[in-house]
Amino acid sequence: VTAGKTPDESKYGHNVQEFIRGCETAVRDLGIRAEHFWIGEEKLTPERLNQILCTRGIRGAVLVTVGEWRTKMNHPWHDLAIVRYGILERFPSFDWVQANHHGNMERLLAILREEGFHRIGFAMETPYIFDNLNPWLAVYVLEQSERPPRNRLKPWLDAEPTFEGFQAWLGKERPEIVVCVRPSKVLDWLGRLGLRVPEDISVVTMGTAEVGGAVSGIVENARISSRLAFEMLMDRIHHNEFGQHETPHHITVSGQWNRGETMRYR
Fold first, then answer.
1. Starting at the edge strand that comes first in sequence, how are the strands of the sheet with 216-219 ordered?
2. Under the phi-then-psi rule, with left for phi > 0, alpha for psi from -120 to 50, and beta for the rest, what region is 17?
3. What is the pLDDT of residues 192-240, one digit of tens each?
4. pTM across the whole model
5. Cα dihedral 227, 97, 83, 246 in deg (nearest 10)
6. For residue 9, is pLDDT > 70?
7. 202/223 Cα distance (integer angstroms)
8. Which single residue of 15, 32, 52, 64 has CA 20 to 30 Å from 3?
9. Is the distance from CB of 53 to CB of 80 less than 8 angstroms?
10. What is the arithmetic mean of pLDDT over 167-173?
11. Distance CA 179, CA 199 (A)
């Protein structure tokens, strides 16, 4: 079940596209059949979708909780096995699979330290994270507290990110490297400021890099998450465990480093 602005998966970001493609492979390997439902359809309430799934004899669903209509998924989902994929939210006791955001950020910062970066900036150039828990920020703030005072930078966390806000933050904090979520916007802004990447300043992403891609950073391995999601789902169905759980299972998948071309290496 997806929750994007449209049912078209090409409208999603790279990780969600990879997850959905991985689902297609996972169900084939597991010998089951899956159908795509879009919860954003007009007049389709969660209660109605829950009823449709049960009436059709569907035993469980993987909810991709990313996109404009994702809050519609905050529903008890009676008589169904449920696994959610996306950023962990403070909601229902369902099984969950997601990227290891905490561990990925720790690994990214460790790589930057090994490469000799002292002034590491964190730019939240997209506002969506304010609706969720933020392990990236938690790890960054802790890491900064262990640095000498002269190299402690305040993260840029404007709720409504703008070029002017980014420019002011960059001029005040003077980072050698910018850690961000969606680097295309940061790269564009740095270009407008006449800064070359990585000659003048480096850029890395903590979760939207692609294997072999030009942007340096962490690849989330979304296809592995999709297989795990269906394996978790099949296990619940096999044991006749439907609805919410007192002890839901949360599985995180560690990412991998993509060298890329936007970071200066020693």
1. 120-123, 177-180, 202-205, 216-219, 256-258
2. alpha
3. 999 999 999 999 999 889 999 999 999 999 999 999 999 999 999 999 9
4. 0.88
5. 140
6. no
7. 28
8. 32
9. yes
10. 97
11. 16
Mean of pLDDT values over 94-99: 93
CA-to-CA distance for 94 and 83, rounded, in angstroms?
Answer: 6
**Is the link from the previous residue into 92 a cis peptide, with omega within 30 of 0?**
no
- Total residues found in the chain within this entry: 266
- Phi, psi angles (nearest 5°) of residue 7: -75, -5
**pLDDT, tens digit, 9 for 90 and up, residues 237-253:** 999 999 999 999 999 99
How many Cα neighbours within 13 Å face the side chain of 105? 19
194 neighbors 169 (Cβ within 8 angstroms): no
Average pLDDT over residues 27-46: 92
> 81 vs 1, 45, 135, 244, CA distance in Å?
13, 18, 27, 8
- List Cα–Cα distances, 112 to 11, 39, 48, 220, 260, in angstroms: 32, 40, 49, 18, 14
